[in-house]
Amino acid sequence: MREIVYDTYFWQNDMVRLRAWSEADWEWDYYNSFDTLAVRLADCKVELPPTVSHSKEYSEKVSSLSTNNCRTTFAIETLDGIHVGRINILLDDHQNGTFGSGLLIDRDYRGKGYGTSAMKILLKYGFMEKRLNKYSSSALEGNEASIKMHKKLGCEQEGVLKQNIYTNGRYYDEIYFGLTKEDYLKL
């Protein structure tokens, strides 16, 4: 196979490259399923104990950019090919022109800008290629990394749903963020 030249590749920037999730990525999913705090912050719940078969089934379901519940899942890699995370884009509201995302970075690579860099690629795709008008997302109260990332991306906090999510024995606020294409283009 010829060497791939990434000079003008859309799905990368100066820090990360997005690629299709593959069935072989089940190990990454399995390993990161043991990070209960991160999974709780991302999914607002605790899953049953991880199993190899569940991770393999998940990876098979979302591999090769197949859409699952209007979500397309990508692996996040450094430019050196190190798998550092998973990101998906939620494209379920074409009528209103909105989209969302989900993101999980491996604990060993958090706080280094990989998630923010991957989000920049998805925002560019949503606004500049899919002609969508608004990115919307929420973060669970206490998810400081997600809150910081959204603000860094230019998102505005649009509201708080008080005590909206129940997990870990109590109700948490859900903080909503948004970014319009107009504001994105100003950045």
Automatic annotation (TrEMBL):
Keyword Transferase applies: yes
Domain of life: Bacteria
InterPro entries assigned: Acyl_CoA_acyltransferase, GNAT_dom
GO molecular function, one term: acyltransferase activity, transferring groups other than amino-acyl groups
Record keywords: Transferase
Ranges for domain N-acetyltransferase: 4-182
SUPFAM superfamilies: Acyl-CoA N-acyltransferases (Nat)
Name of the protein in its database record: Protein N-acetyltransferase, RimJ/RimL family
Species name: Clostridium frigidicarnis
